[in-house]
Amino acid sequence: MSAVTWGRMHTFLAVVDHGSVRAAATVLHVTEPAVSAAVSALERHLGTALLAKEGRGVRVTDSGLVYAGYCRRILGLVDEARTAVRSAEGGRLRIGAVSTASEYVIPPLLASFHRRYPDVDLSLSVLPRDELFAELGNHGTDLVVAGRPPRGSGLRTRARRPNRLIVVAAPGRFPRPLTATWLLRGPGSGTRDTTLGLLTQLEAAPPVLTLGTHGAVLAAAREGLGVTLVHADAVQRDLGQGVLEQLALPRTPVDRPWHVATADSPTPTAELFLAHISSADDVGGEAFHLLNRPQG
Description:
Layout: H1 6-18, H2 21-28, H3 32-46, E1 51-54, E2 57-60, H4 62-84, E3 92-97, H5 99-104, H6 106-116, E4 121-126, H7 129-137, E5 143-146, E6 156-161, E7 164-169, E8 182-185, H8 190-201, E9 208-212, H9 214-222, E10 228-231, H10 236-241, E11 245-247, E12 254-255, E13 258-262, H11 268-277, H12 280-283, E14 289-295
Parallel strand pairs: 3-4, 3-5, 8-9
Antiparallel strand pairs: 1-2, 5-13, 6-13, 6-14, 7-10, 7-11, 7-12
Helix pairs in contact: 1-2, 1-3, 1-4, 2-3
């Protein structure tokens, strides 16, 4: 096992993530021969090729993709273990969230948590749902705020908070919303999947426009470019100011509670955060509801 070191696994993942030996060397601030030597040592130990030449560059083999998944989980666990042995109030908490949660759900919770536990090292990553749960499964994140974790993923829902998805548009612009253009988030978005599922249930096939980000979709809706399905939390101000209006459609609003998910064994600091966000004394009406038996 002496050929398999944390450093060599980290180097191999840099090649996978950045697409070439040269790019990995640049990111790691080492020479290209050093990167190649690290990968070669792993290949000799495993008895299989992790990279293959392709033109002037390299591609990751099928074996390399499998091994990369193990490397992520192993390195994630090593990093997690380093912080898990510390006091919860002086540890680290890596939170992941979908973009809507990061803008409208997480900020007040983080602010009150930081005021109470100022020594906790906090970080927040904002990614599409599928990438967040992949990171959580690989121990690259401690806790995720999003929709429900995928079945069979081994991830657990620890707490929930009610949330609805509603259809909105610029006032008076779309009396027949099922014939209007529907504004969609990018692939990997849970809201996008729910929107497409809703349209299928309603047997509607309107034109669609993918705008990628949550902010872009809302901006386009305000400008009258189309209608969209959106988290009610995200448009309360727009509705109150008359910039957007809620449209009545069958099967809406759609119940999509916010879920707080962790791996099977949360870190002490993640447990501390869960206790904080489920306390009405600490966070008021923003509180989540802890589940007596985690769901996954």
